[in-house]
Write a structure and sequence with these properties.
The complex is a heterodimer. Chain A is α+β, with helices and mostly antiparallel strands. Helix content of chain A is 18%, strand content 34%. In chain A, the strands form two sheets. In chain A, strands 1-2-3-9-8-5 form a six-stranded antiparallel β-sheet. In chain A, a hairpin with a 5-residue loop joins strand 2 and strand 3. Chain A starts with 7 loop residues before the first strand and ends with a helix. By secondary structure, chain B is α+β, with helices and mostly antiparallel strands. Helices cover 20% and strands 33% of the residues of chain B. Chain B starts with 7 loop residues before the first helix and ends with a strand. The chains are: A alpha+beta, B alpha+beta. At the A-B interface, strand 4 of A face loops of B.
Chain lengths: 125, 363
């Protein structure tokens, strides 16, 4: 499984990167894009929305299925990666570069609830 | 344990991602279903369709039997090799299955039926054989490979030059027996090509030979987007035992010209006028239409029976069963609302097929 060690993960297949300013960048994992197959639409992300941990943040649609993406921790949505409007297939090609949304965490202590690479891999067993 | 086709090992060796389909372990895709889709539209791809069942119906009563069991009239098959698409109906006019019937000779027909319904179909045929002088033989000894795309026939001839003479003159929807093989110019993609039934043991060699000619292995995922673009129904989605062919866009396959032909389901079809119709939809916003989404039309509520993202068109399309607005049915151009994840999204009723022979038929 391709799971970079410098990222955190959720059981619902998001990866989370903490930026130097404390904000979070979120995408979907390589195993997740593999399961979904060819992604054709990413959207419904509302910039400015305040989301509780585990709330639906948007949707990723492949030809095969629609899959919700979730806020890994409580926070405010800061941005949506609009490059995905024209090339949603970036999620298949480079899942760890093609981020989906950015989040400002309400409580940085919540980050401790996220999984590391080994924890995520174990959760897939 | 899941059933496996004679090409199962071949698929594993090609990196197929497998899925359960009607109890069979079948390739879903070999990496990218979109690439496979485009290969079929622009060049050539091949599908293992060995999970479908060939059923031979033979004997002096074969014609009369099939005229009784099939809603389309097998009497149209006036020469060996001619093929016909038909529904097989239950007494209430619901669809038991859809199939292709090929006349091999006047006392011998090959039916090709869906995988998930094969056992049910066989039982249905046997139950109804009664007084007819026919033998019904399932051909699980055969494998089937569908080679589809504008370059499909040339690829088959390159792989097997001896087939060229026998199949070059085949018109669409006809077939020919060549030794133990039955080669039909048919398919489920809206493209030219062949469907080849052959001895199970010979299937891996044909698959590899086609592969060597550049034919792309394609899975069920691409098969579904291709057939939906081509406006072809999928049994279990677009019609079932509970739906009439007349409410499933299949009125053209129900042949009522011979007033005396008493096929199963005919009285039920004639007892009530269809109240719903199958229509094509184009999503006018971003997202993907999926089966079972609710559709609100000016004439009432309907439901999507098949929906997908169309790789050729670049937007989402669907088939939907909606109320008929009077005799004429729902009219092309009407705007409807589709309930997508709780939000009403605008879609338009369009003509289908959506794509044929590599060309978009709607925009």
């Amino acid at each position: 499984m391709n799971l970079p060690e410098n990222l955190k993960y959720t059981k619902s297949h998001e990866w989370v990167r903490t930026e130097t300013d404390g904000t979070l960048t979120i995408g979907i994992t390589d195993p997740a894009q593999e399961m979904l197959g060819d992604v054709v639409f990413v959207g419904d992300v509302k910039v400015g929305a305040h989301l509780a941990a585990g709330a639906v943040a948007g949707v990723v649609e492949s030809v095969k299925a629609a899959s919700d993406i979730y806020a890994p921790v409580t926070g405010e949505v800061l941005a949506f990666n609009t490059a995905l409007d024209d090339s949603p297939d970036q999620l298949n090609e480079k899942p760890y570069e093609a981020w989906i949304f950015r989040l400002k965490p309400a409580d940085p202590a919540q980050l401790a609830t996220l999984l590391d690479a080994a924890g995520y891999a174990a959760a897939q067993e | 344990m899941a059933l496996r086709t004679p090409l199962y090992e071949t698929h594993l060796g090609s990196g197929a991602r497998l899925t359960d389909f009607g109890g069979w372990d079948m390739p879903l895709h070999y990496g990218s279903q979109l690439e496979e889709h485009h290969r079929v539209r622009t060049a050539a791809g091949m599908f293992d369709v060995s999970h479908m069942l060939g059923i031979d119906v033979a004997g002096p009563g074969a014609l009369a039997f099939l005229q009784r069991l099939l809603a389309n009239d097998v009497a149209k098959l006036d020469a060996p090799g001619r093929a016909l698409y038909s529904c097989m109906l239950n007494p209430s006019g619901g669809v038991v299955d859809d199939l292709v019937a090929i006349m091999l000779d006047p006392q011998r027909y090959r039916l090709v039926v869906n995988a998930a319904t094969a056992d049910k179909d066989l039982a249905w045929l046997r139950t109804n054989a009664g007084e007819f002088r026919v033998t019904i033989t399932p051909r699980r000894d055969l494998a089937m490979i569908a080679v589809q795309g504008p370059q499909a026939r040339e690829a088959v001839w390159a792989a097997h030059p001896e087939l060229r003479a026998a199949t070059e003159g085949l018109m669409p929807f006809t077939a020919t027996e060549h030794g133990a093989r039955l080669i039909a110019r048919t398919g489920y993609t809206g493209e030219d090509g062949f469907e080849i039934a052959l001895a199970a043991a010979d299937a891996p060699a044909l698959w590899q030979a086609l592969r060597a000619e550049g034919v792309a292995p394609c899975g069920l995922a691409a098969r579904d987007t291709l057939r939906l673009e081509a406006g072809m129904n999928l049994y279990g989605n677009d019609m079932t035992e509970a739906t009439s062919p007349l409410e499933s866009g299949l009125g053209w396959t129900v042949d009522r010209k011979a007033a005396e032909r008493d096929f199963v389901g005919r009285p039920a079809l004639e007892a009530a006028a269809p109240r719903r119709a199958l229509v094509g939809l184009k999503l006018l916003d971003r997202g993907v239409l999926r089966s079972h989404m609710r559709v609100t039309t000016p004439a009432g509520e309907g439901e999507i029976t098949s929906g997908t993202f169309s790789p050729t068109l670049g937007f989402s399309i669907a088939l939907a069963r909606v109320p008929r607005a009077g005799e004429a049915g729902p009219s092309v151009g009407t705007e409807v609302a589709v309930d997508m994840r709780g939000k009403p999204m605008p879609a338009r009723i369009v003509k289908y097929p959506f794509v044929r022979h590599g060309k978009a038929l709607i925009s």
